[in-house]
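Tokens in:
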């Protein structure tokens, strides 16, 4: 029987209230300790069942659960690191894109950071139901592109640089039905230093 590696909930790299006023403490506590924890638990249950499955049919029956919960775990683990306490709230460096390779690539692909935000928000606002908005590196052209995935599908077509959770659980307690306000606010807590580290790794070829 294959050894199953247990997934675990990664700790947040900041306090639950650190992203205020843009993302409330209440959202962060529920999102991390309830939603993400549930994906972790369900992924471990599906992995354990898969390891015990004796037939192709049993293993095929587990594919949807593995994809949904495995994607949920991967996406949220990335999302927490994508965020940082905001410079606009004098709490950290969130929202600040410094001169460097990522800023240069954003300007090449979109003209400016403001244009990227506008295009990203317009594209992700169009997601029907739940999903994720992404800034990713196209592995063929090595250029930055905006794309989306449905449900908890992880980004497989691009190397993820920034991912934004567009599920209602990510914003509803604070922004209600106004997804556009959430999308505007999130840029104040985007961790561009983490994004640049991801970008540099992607371009260096180690994940292409
Ligand atoms: Fe989420």
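Residues out:
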């Amino acid at each position: 029987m294959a050894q199953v590696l247990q997934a675990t909930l990664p700790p947040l790299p900041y306090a639950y209230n650190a992203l205020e006023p843009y993302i409330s403490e209440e959202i962060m506590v529920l999102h991390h300790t309830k939603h993400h924890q549930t994906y972790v638990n369900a992924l471990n249950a599906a992995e354990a069942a898969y390891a015990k499955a004796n037939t192709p049919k049993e293993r095929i029956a587990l594919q949807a659960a593995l994809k949904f919960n495995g994607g949920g775990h991967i996406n949220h683990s990335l999302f927490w690191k994508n965020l940082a306490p905001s410079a606009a709230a004098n709490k950290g460096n969130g929202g600040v894109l410094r001169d460097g390779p990522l800023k240069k690539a954003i300007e090449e692909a979109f003209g400016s950071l403001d244009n990227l935000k506008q295009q990203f928000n317009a594209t992700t606002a169009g997601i029907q139901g739940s999903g994720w908005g992404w800034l990713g590196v196209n592995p063929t052209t090595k250029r930055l592109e905006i794309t989306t995935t449905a449900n908890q599908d992880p980004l497989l077509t691009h190397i993820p640089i920034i991912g934004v959770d567009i599920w209602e659980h990510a914003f509803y307690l604070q922004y209600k039905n106004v997804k556009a306000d959430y999308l505007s606010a999130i840029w104040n807590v985007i961790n561009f230093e983490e994004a640049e580290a991801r970008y540099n790794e992607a371009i260096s070829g180690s994940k292409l």
